[in-house]
Amino acid sequence: MAPIAGYNGQVDFGDIVDSDVAYRTHAWSTDISADALDTTDFTSEGWREFIAGLKSWSGTVEMYVDSTNRIVPSDVGNSTLATITLDLDGTSKLTGKAFVTSWNPAVTVDGVETQSLGFQGTSDLFAV
């Protein structure tokens, strides 16, 4: 199996923020997890036993900033859900409903202004 180049990845924020392309996204990550519920009892013979519990997903998007494209504080915690699409390689995608949980702008004297956006999924995350 061949490695996949990351340069074909993309993010579509849906209605969370304006004009996705203008936000110059350059990286994204997501964490998909499920709770492990302990069902160990006296018959478990010294080994813990688990069943699957609730699932969740969240993630971050890294963006460069220009003079006109900044996330605004009111985007954080806005209860309006949007469909986020995380494009893996130009053909394989993950999509689901989410809302913005954090915004982290950053500036360094020897670099470009960046901003990261955190989001929390509120639905199933579908592979499309």
Structural overview:
This protein has one domain: Roll (Pnp Oxidase, Chain A), CATH 2.30.110. The protein is mainly beta and 128 residues long. Helix content is 0%, strand content 48%. 14% of the residues are buried. It contains no helices and seven strands. Strands 1, 2, 3, 4, 5, 6 and 7 form a seven-stranded antiparallel β-sheet that branches.
Please sum up the structure shown:
By secondary structure, this protein is an all-beta fold. The chain has no helices and seven strands.
Oligomer: single chain
Give the topology string: H per helix, E per strand.
Answer: EEEEEEE
Q: Into how many domains do the coordinates divide?
A: 1
Mean pLDDT: 85
Work out the strand percent: over 45%
Shape: elongated
The CATH superfamily appears as Hcp1-like
Note poorly predicted spans: none
Q: Helix coverage percent of residues?
A: under 10%
Main structural class: mainly beta
CATH architecture: Roll
Q: Assign the CATH class.
A: Mainly Beta
Question: What is the rounded Rg?
Answer: 18 Å
Largest sheet: 7 strands, antiparallel
How many helix segments? Answer: 0
Instruction: State the distance separating the first and last CA atoms.
Output: 20 Å
Number of strands: 7
Tell me the CATH topology.
Pnp Oxidase, Chain A
